[in-house]
Specification:
The structure holds 2 protein chains of 2 kinds.
Chain A (H helix, E strand, L loop, with lengths): L1 E6 L3 H6 L5 E10 L2 H12 L12 E3 L27 H6 L4 E4 L5 H10 L2 E4 L5 H5 L2 E8 L8 E15 L6 H9 L3
Parallel strand pairs in A: 1-2, 2-3, 3-4, 4-5
Antiparallel strand pairs in A: 2-7, 5-7, 6-7
Chain B lengths: L1 E4 H17 L3 H13 L3 H20 L9 E9 L2 E4 L3 H15 L23 E7 L4 E8 L1 H4 L3 E5 L4 H16 L7 E9 L1 H11 L11 H14 L15 E11 L4 E8 L6 E4 L1
Parallel strand pairs in B: 1-3, 2-4, 7-8
Antiparallel strand pairs in B: 2-5, 5-10, 6-9, 7-9
Helix pairs in contact in B: 1-4, 2-3, 6-8
């Protein structure tokens, strides 16, 4: 089913989304990948605040290529989500409501998604030029020294994603493969 | 003896890094377009259409095809009649990468130490494979490699008794484990034979062979076709979201090996199978 949602969103919206839905996201999302996750995790361990309020927000696992003059961002497709799995349940328990990435997640992440009524979306890997057209603005808000891995606040309009793991734990990577498997 | 100045090497490598990250080779474009017509899943077809639009936007608007503009892998096939002048060849190659990634607005994804992990901020050093060949030319292949798929690559040290079935199972295992992480539809490069490191380089080089050009060795070509067919029955599909297009090609290279061994490397590449070739 095709849907349009606005981010941030609460658990009521998350519960309406189903594995396999094609979703257009509009609103504010945040980028963070390997190094930013490590730093956020260390901040929490040391009792410090995260650099942005993650409640009801969505993290996009993405490190862009540099923007040409006059453009908000360079190429901007998803990176592999599993490298963030170690840190993700903690962030979900703090109120993170969605993640955009690509690739498999662990059982721990899936359980945390169900527990917190969140959603794991996939964007199409390797389509960074196309996806960049749905990003209206980009601003580094933390960890600037990490370069492409800094945390960025993005304004997006009709950013195309697919629900992979929904708030009930249905996983499109498992169900869809079964549907087309011939051996 | 023919003389080539290192400035020519640097300039060409700079241009090739930029070119490879914005435009795929004709054979890659063709095989993607064909896949759109044969894909069984409607979501799969939608994803393949997005990939085609992505390629169009990348080349027309000069936005890299993928934000992971890779670690620069460079094959240098140097004719032994060539004399390189003006400085150190390796420095010239890395200078080309530095200029290309800077001027081309490409992402700097290289860290100086695998554990300490500090970004070198210019995407150097490149991974360079030198080969001395006959003649008075230098053939340069620039193949920027993204790590979503690189991370899913494997080396299997099989036993001779595992034979051809063992090789096929190794390739299918690597592809199945890679699944959605490697940004399917993939191109699968396979190296069989040699030693531990030789088979990995064979697999990497296999990715740079045109996808519409099979191996010249009949049994290898048959294996390429059979593996492609079996991989596309795995159900993984475009984006790993189900379908009949999991791989676009399987390219296999072979080399003599030891009586006791059967090394097999599977180097997986996503659909952004980038390479640019020039002969100086």
């Amino acid at each position: 089913m095709e849907r349009r949602i606005v981010v941030p969103y609460d658990e009521k919206v998350a519960e309406e989304l189903q594995s396999g839905d094609y979703v257009y996201i509009t609103g504010t999302i945040y980028t963070a990948r390997d190094a930013a996750h490590k730093r956020m995790y260390e901040a929490l361990e040391q009792g410090r605040e995260l650099p942005f309020d993650i409640r009801n927000n969505v993290i996009y696992y993405m490190g862009p290529s540099p923007a040409r003059e006059g453009r908000p961002i360079g190429s901007a497709g998803p990176t592999t989500a599993s490298r963030m799995d170690k840190y993700t349940p903690t962030l979900l328990d703090l109120g993170l409501k969605g993640m955009i990435g690509k690739g498999k997640r662990t059982e721990d992440v899936k359980e945390a998604i169900i527990r917190n009524k969140a959603v794991y979306f996939a964007a199409v890997g390797g389509a960074g030029a196309l996806l960049s057209k749905s990003i209206l603005s980009s601003e580094v808000i933390a960890y600037e020294d990490l370069g492409t891995e800094a945390i960025r606040r993005l304004q997006v309009k009709d950013f195309p994603v697919i629900v992979v793991i929904d708030s009930r734990g249905n996983n499109l990577y498992e169900t869809a493969i079964e549907a087309y498997k011939e051996i | 003896m023919r003389t080539i100045n290192i400035e020519d090497i640097t300039r060409n490598i700079k241009e090739m890094c930029i070119e490879a990250n914005h435009v795929l080779t004709k054979d890659m474009n063709q095989v993607l377009a064909q896949a759109r017509n044969t894909e069984k899943s409607s979501l799969g077809r939608q994803i393949l259409c997005q990939l085609e639009s992505n390629l169009k936007i990348a080349s027309e608007e000069r936005i890299p095809i993928c934000q992971d503009t890779g670690m620069a892998v460079i094959f240098m096939e140097i004719g032994q009649e060539v004399h390189i002048e003006g400085g150190l060849l390796t420095d010239a190659v890395n200078e080309g990468v530095r200029q290309g990634y800077g001027e081309g607005y490409l992402r700097k994804s290289v860290v100086s130490d695998p554990v300490i992990r500090e970004n070198t901020k210019d995407n150097t050093p490149a991974v360079i494979h030198y080969d001395i060949v006959a003649g008075d030319q230098v053939k340069i292949t620039v193949a920027p490699k993204g790590f979503g798929s690189e991370n899913m690559s494997r080396v299997f040290m099989l036993k001779p008794a595992d034979g051809i079935e063992g090789i096929k199972n190794a390739v299918l295992t690597a592809v199945k484990d890679a699944g959605p992480n490697a940004c399917p539809p993939m191109v699968v490069g396979v190296g069989i034979g040699g030693t531990f490191e030789k088979c990995a380089i064979l697999a990497k080089k296999a990715l740079t062979r045109p996808v519409d050009e099979g191996s010249e060795i009949p049994y290898v070509r048959e294996m390429e076709e059979e593996l492609l067919n079996r991989i596309n029955k795995s159900g993984i599909g475009p984006g790993g979201l189900g379908g009949s297009t999991t791989a676009l090609a399987v390219n296999i290279n072979t080399y003599p090996t030891h009586i006791a061994g059967l090394p097999v490397a599977v180097n997986i590449c996503c659909h952004v199978n980038r390479h640019c070739v020039r002969i100086l």
